[in-house]
Structure formats: structure tokens, C-alpha cells
Specification:
The protein is of the alpha/beta class. It is built from 14 helices and ten strands.
Length: about 325
């Protein structure tokens, strides 16, 4: 029995390095929250599909959550990252220990669609404008857009939270709202039905929309994980930008679109995807000016209190 015990101990010692190597080889599980299935962060899906995360030793999955729920889950550590940059930035400036570590979409992928008879943003006065949810990017950009045209949100134009894109499409079709701030492919759907696109928000307010936000604690304790996640995502963005046909096929399957919708959505989104992962200087300035106006600050805040570019700059 003693000899058997000694043999077992020896076997355990012998196998220990192998077991440790096997454990280390297991991909790290990462959950990313997103407020909706949007082309603004589609490169994350494509990166996962192409196996670029696996190549970095990461097992990445994403879950759709409302922005408020996503923030709570991120702060609690229930998810490691979120694509909702608007909510992350605002939380950071309220003192929540969060940072944006990369951008994916450099400008908002929202179009302003209106019913026939409305020909300008100014003509929305006294009308109803549909968004996804309060606190979401559609809410932020709707308010910023109205202010650009000297209209006071919820005073001159009533903002209505309706949920996902299909809900806003239905509300436009039934006449429940007069206009909608809406993303691809729903803008294409509405245009096919005779609704008019007044403008593309990204052309007017080119501030960062989607990317990866995380906790400062993770930045301090797991920088290698973040570096690998960022590196793989940048690889996925480059692939999406340079491989239209494969990207369109992926969009068709992922978003259950026909080819025409997928191609139109890709064309709208591809120019917004960041090649560097860093927000453009003009976009960052606009974002900080919007924060200044929203928070009623005397001056634009210091962007470093919400952004950490160290991982994309390595």
C-alpha cells in the first residue's frame, strides 16, 4: 500500500505540469453586453465567427441587454465588457470606475426617417420622435440632433421610447409617431415603404458610438486579456472592411436580412468602423461638447476620465 501511495504521488507530480498546461490552454470566457443587435458592433460577431478571438485564447460571447441593465451588469462584474459607449462615457463622468478601451464605430449609424409631408428637422416641431430607449444612444443623439436645430427635446419635439427597430418601424407604419431615429437595416426598410430619410446622423455628429467599455479594476488586474481582446477585434474590423462579400453574407445570416438589405446596411456601416480603435479628434471633441451641454458644465470635460487608449496604441 505504501508503495502504491508513493507511486500515486509520483504520478501526480509527473502530471501536474501537463494539467496546468491544459488548464492554461482553455480559452478565457468573456461576456460582452450590447443594447441591441446593431451593425455598429457587427465586427465583434465577425471576429468571433472567423475564429480571431479563439486565436488569442479567448472564448467570446455577447448578450443583448438594455443600456441601464448592461451598466448594472458591467459594474457588478456579471459581464466583462459592453459595446454601449454612450452609457459607459456618461457613467464614467459621474464617477463610476469605467473606461472605454477602444472604439469600433467612429460615428453613429442612425438615420432620421420621417413620414411624407415633413421636409426638414425644423418641421418636427410639435411632432413625435421615436427612439429605442431612454439612456440609449438613440436618445442621446436624438437630443443632440434637436439641439443642433434649435429645438428643445420634449418641449418642441416629444421623444417616445419604443424599443427595438421593428417596433419603431411598426410605429411609423401605423402613424403612431411622425419620425424615428433608426439604425440599419430598419432605415432601409422604411425607405422602401416610402418614408423619407432627412439625414444621416453620423454626417452631422461624428462622435464615437460603439466599442468596448470595461471596469477600471479589469484594466488594472487583467490588462493582458484586454490587449488580446482589442487586438482580435481590430483584426476583425480590418477583415470586415476589406471583405465585403463575406461580410454581407455574414450580415444576412446574423441579422436575417435579404441580400439587398444586407448590402445597403453594409454600405452604411463600413465607413464608420474604426481602423485604429481610437476615436477621431473631431469626434472626441464633439462627444465632449455633448457631455458639457448635457451635464451643464462650464467647459468640455477631460476625455481621459472616460477613455483609455493605451491598449489600441500598443
Amino acid at each position: 500500500m505504501l508503495q502504491l501511495g508513493i507511486a500515486l504521488i509520483g504520478l501526480i507530480i509527473l502530471l501536474a505540469p501537463m494539467l496546468q498546461s491544459l488548464a492554461a490552454a482553455q480559452p478565457a470566457k468573456i461576456h460582452i453586453s450590447a443594447p441591441s443587435k446593431s451593425l455598429s458592433w457587427f465586427p465583434i460577431h465577425l471576429t468571433r465567427e472567423k475564429g480571431f478571438y479563439r486565436a488569442e485564447g479567448l472564448d467570446v460571447d455577447y448578450v443583448i441587454m438594455k443600456p441601464q441593465v448592461a451598466m448594472q451588469a458591467l459594474i457588478a462584474g456579471d459581464v466583462g465588457y459592453t459595446t454601449a459607449l454612450g452609457s459607459t462615457i456618461r457613467a464614467a463622468f459621474r464617477g463610476v470606475p469605467l473606461r472605454v478601451v477602444m472604439t469600433i464605430a467612429d460615428k453613429p449609424l442612425f438615420a432620421l426617417l420621417v413620414k411624407p409631408g415633413i421636409n426638414s428637422v425644423e418641421e418636427l416641431k410639435g411632432k413625435l420622435l421615436g427612439i429605442s430607449s431612454f439612456g440609449a444612444s438613440t436618445d442621446t443623439y436624438a437630443r443632440a440632433l434637436l439641439r443642433r436645430f434649435k429645438l428643445t427635446p420634449n418641449q418642441d419635439v416629444k421623444i417616445i421610447a419604443l424599443g427595438g427597430g421593428t417596433n419603431r418601424v411598426a410605429a411609423m407604419e401605423t402613424g403612431a409617431i411622425d419620425a424615428a431615429l433608426i439604425e440599419a437595416p430598419y432605415n432601409v426598410m422604411l425607405e422602401r415603404k416610402g418614408f423619407r430619410r432627412i439625414l444621416f446622423v453620423g454626417d452631422l455628429i461624428p462622435s464615437p458610438l460603439a466599442g468596448l467599455g470595461t471596469r477600471i479594476e479589469k484594466i488594472q488586474k487583467q490588462p493582458d486579456e484586454i490587449q488580446r481582446l482589442v487586438r482580435a477585434t481590430l483584426r476583425g474590423i480590418q477583415f470586415a472592411k476589406s471583405n465585403k462579400q463575406e461580410s454581407v453574407r455574414s450580415i444576412m445570416k446574423w441579422a436575417e436580412m435579404d441580400q439587398g438589405l444586407a448590402e445597403g446596411s453594409y454600405e452604411m456601416a463600413v465607413s464608420s468602423w474604426s481602423s485604429t480603435g481610437v476615436a477621431s479628434a473631431p469626434g472626441l471633441q464633439i462627444a465632449m461638447e455633448e457631455i458639457r451641454a448635457e451635464f451643464k458644465l462650464d467647459a468640455a470635460p477631460d476625455a481621459s476620465k472616460a477613455f483609455d487608449w493605451s491598449f489600441v496604441q500598443k
